[in-house]
Amino acid sequence: MSKVKTFLAVTGISAAVCGLSFGLLGVAPKAGVLVAQGQVKVADPTSVVMIVNRDSNDIAFMDIKTKRLVGKAFLGNNVNPHMVMMSPDGRYVVTGGTRANKAYIIDAHTLELVKVIPVDIAPEHLSFSPDSRWYYQGNPDGDSISVIDMQSLTKIKTIPGFAEPLNVTFTPDGTKAYVGNYGAHWVGVIDVRRHELSKKIQIAAPPGTAKLDPDRFLGELHGINIATPTPDGRFLYAADGALGMVGVIDTREDKVIKTIQVGKDPWRAYMSHDGKYAVVPNNGDETISIIDTKTNRVAATLEAGPDMVGVNFAAGKAFVISNSSGFLYVYNMSSLRPAGRIKIGVNVNLETATTDTADQKLYLAVSTTNEVVIIDARTEEIERVKNVGLFPWGTHIMDSKDNYCH
Amino acid sequence: MLKALKCTIVVTMLVLVTGSLASAQAPAQQSQAEMVARLQQLQKELATLQAAVAETAKVAAAPQAGQRGGQTPAPAQQGGRGAQPPAAQQQPAMPPGMVMPGGAAGGDPNNPEGAPADSTDPAAMLARIKLLEQRIKDLETGAVLSDPETRIRKKEVYVDKNGVEYDQPTPGAKRVVTYERERVYRRNNINEKIEEALSDAEEHHVKVGVDAGIVSQFAHRTKGDAFVQDDGTETGNNHAYMLASADLFFTAGIAQNTIFFADIVGLSGPPPDLELGTLSLVNGYSARLVNQNELNLREAWLRTELFSNRLSLTAGRLDLTNYFDNNAAANDETSQFISDALVNNGALGLAENGAGLAIVFDPKNGFNFKAGFQQSSHTATSLSDSFYSLAELGYVARLPGLGEGGYRFWYRTDNNETTGYNIGFGTSIDQKLGPEVTLFARYGESQANPKRDKFYSGGFQFAQGLAFYPGDKWGVGFSQIDPVVGGKEQLVEGYYNLSIAEKFNLSFHVQHFLESDSGTKRGYLVPGIRLQASF
To answer: What is the predicted pLDDT for the residue at B26?
Structure first.
């Protein structure tokens, strides 16, 4: 027993002296690697809402039960993180720093920054492969996707050839990833085994009268934001803003099986949790188009609000976020009729929301008031959690079906 | 004990030496790769910054020649990608290991000292890193707004009777709204700042819009004798007409949820209605306008929204048909049917615009309620002598197996001096039969002695897959006016609206009017072309 104690004592002292010697010799850990040594702040990664704060440059973690912040991961000045996501295995939280051109990896339990990885220009939206192995970071200004290996925490490749890539969607088996190109009319297909752009699927061609309307077709291009999957991953719904179309892609054959005309300037499709409907906010005419995924036809076109940036589903309703009006527009997903609206505030900007895994509550980021508003989907009562950070841009809950960004 | 201490010292020394050796080896192995990576990263950052500087210079030199074609940029928070405006145009990043080409004078601006980029000499690489870092620092200072941004934020605080302010609710303290400056670490480039400034300036200006149309119509009499006008002249069998119309809109936000709007319209050229003498207007452009060939103030009003924007009040000179008797498929003479009978309900009986008030209550749950009044005759000397009032209940319904439909029911009164007090009621329905087809119908009755005048209309609008181009639409419609006194009118119209550009439409129309009165009939076939520009 005394030998064991002696060994432990020796080892402890040795480690301490060794650490001291590293410090004295000025030998730092490998550049960009920050070793997580802190205490566990989040034991269960499903118990927190992550809030990405653009102007305070941090990720805040709020306990779902107590509605209190349990910690923040500061990323650095002028990082301006855009979207946050937890790896499916619950080990890491990642974000892209749009103004720092870097990806940030945070330990999901200690909330410490464990790695900073330079990527391409202006990283925004991101996604994980279902097995948590690959973190794909979209770089819209670099026209590329950065591939980060989550085992070694290194960037292994930059896939070029995109046109303002925004959101990435992995197939359930993780063999393919689909990338929405906001600066083009096609969806990119990445072969995940080789991390290569293997195919471009055009949603629709501009009409023959396009040359008569150069402002619309040669000006600022609103292309494809995301290819939204059905719950089984069999089909993707990709809305093209400039063309006012939604293309339905068969993921087995990687081809467009139908194009559906919706309203003006559709933002993207949001899939209802049961997969029956895809809701498309049309910012050009302030309506929403509800697509029946069985018939692939527009089942309803309903009046909505200006500057729509997100849709969440809960308690049998769809909640459409109108960024500049301060309202959530509510729709009954059984009758496909309007069901009122919820006022969040005046002169506020509503960003995006996530829905809890029980489909009961929404967590909405309100950037201009630095708060997260919790909405009970059934009663439509709201509760405000103030001072979550500066300019909260989005929220995320592990395993939520409404994790998205704008 | 002594033995253990000795043992500890020996092991410690061993670990210390091993650790030192290992740490001495590691930097030597890593430094080269790291420095190459750092160099590449710095070159990329430098290229980005230089692109930003070049873009800024370009914008400063020619501010109207931006990629938006000189149009005012969209607000930063608008729909699109929220408040992340597009970054400055980037120069293509140099592939790893490639040496940037040097310029004719002064060489490569990123490598003025001419050091080879792929040098493996650690000292040269370190010097180059230092140089590049300094250059980035210089560029960031001059070209990129790295300073913390300052902005004013609305804030709720709690103030007690002594004036002490608290951030959190405190016993004895009252909630007060105040404004406070805050600093944030947001990095914007100059382009973004210019866009924000332009967008901000636009919000404080009066917005102007134009809706211009040119309608060429040709009337061919198909039945009956020529129509004799009041002055005794007869209409010919074939006459051509051209009407040009231009609406100028002015909109300004003047307070929270309050806007001012004015619409000045100029009409030039005779519409067919001056000759054909049909019961309803052949060309709806001239509806409810008193004077032709001169400027008219169609509308000028103030609107404010109350109770969480559920209730809107609009007061001023109004065209009440813009608020009542709406229809998704037959409501706009500039893009749908051109006949006034397929734009509004004939039983509305509203001949001109006038001063009034419109109240709309819309809780956005499918129901809405509207009420309003206006002066119905410009010759009346008081509102009491020409008081026209209207109320409507609207509902968005979904019938089994069909798409959504709008169902509206209205009731109106009028005490116009020419007709005396009379009432009217009606309905306006549009029902989607599918994404491509919309059915519409109107019915109305207006009081007349001894019975009521009757009006009904209906038809279909087709769009999406049933047209040549995605933005096109076409429709067919029928209407009948059956007044107690005078003849009956039946109208059939078909149109095709070709969406040439987002702001420019070309439509082809054909109308046929059949007027019957006391056994005599007159028929007119009126084909036409409409060019419409809205911007």
So the answer is: 41
DSSP letters spanning B409-466: EEEEEE--TTT-SEEEEEEEEEEESSSSEEEEEEEEEEE-SSSEEEEEEEEEEEEGGG
- DSSP 3-state of B14: helix
Residue B77 has a CB neighbour count (10 Å cut-off) of 21
Is residue A6 assigned to a domain? yes
What mean pLDDT do residues A123-146 have? 96
Cβ of B90 within 8 Å of Cβ of A121? The answer is yes
Cis peptide before B171 (omega within 30 of 0): no
A117 falls within a domain: no
Indicate whether this model's pTM tops 0.90: no
End-to-end Cα spacing for chain B: 94
Alpha helices in B149-219 (DSSP H): 190-203
Give me the helices (H) in B166-257, please.
190-203
Q: What is the pLDDT of residue A196?
A: 97
Q: In this model, does residue A288 exceed pLDDT 50?
A: yes
- Is A23 domain-assigned? yes
CATH architecture label of B199-534:
Beta Barrel (2.40)
**pLDDT the model gives residue B13:** 44
Segments forming the whole domain that contains residue A14: 1-30
CB–CB contact B8 A367 (8 Å): no
A122, A261, A283 ranked by CB distance to B464: nearest:
A261
Instruction: State the nearest Cα–Cα gap between B436 and chain A, in angstroms.
Output: 9
- Band of pLDDT at residue B27, cut at 50, 70 and 90: very low
Domain count for chain A, please give it. Answer: 1
Most confident of A15-19, A182-186, B184-188, B271-275: A182-186
Out of A18, A77, A283, the one facing B16 most closely (by C-beta) is A18
Q: Where are the domains of chain B?
A: 150-186, 199-534
Is the CB of A101 less than 8 angstroms away from the CB of B48?
A: yes
CB neighbour list of residue B193: distance below 8 Å, 6 or more residues apart: B145
Q: Is the ipTM of this complex over 0.90?
A: no
| A35 falls within a domain | no
Task: Find which of A3, A68, A78 to mutate to test the B interface (most B CBs within 10 Å of its CB).
Answer: A78
A3 CA: distance to closest CA in chain B (Å): 9
**β partners of residue A333:** none
The verdict on B531 touching A (C-beta cutoff 8 Å) is no
Query: What mean pLDDT is predicted for residues A331-342?
Result: 95
Q: Which one has a higher pLDDT value, A211 or A372?
A: A372
Band of the pLDDT at B467, cuts 50, 70, 90?
confident
Q: Which residue is listed with tokens 């490569």?
A: B108
Q: What does the alpha-carbon distance between residue B499 and residue A206 come to, in Å, rounded to a whole number?
A: 13
Pick the range with the lowest mean pLDDT from A312-326, B13-27, B282-296, B457-471: B13-27
Residues 14 through 33 of chain B touching chain A, CB cutoff 8 Å? 15-16, 19-20, 23, 26-27, 30
Q: Which amino acid is at B320?
A: L
Q: Does residue A145 contact residue A137 with C-beta atoms inside 8 Å?
A: yes
Size of interface A-B (CB pairs under 8 A): 195
CA distance B4 to chain A (A): 7
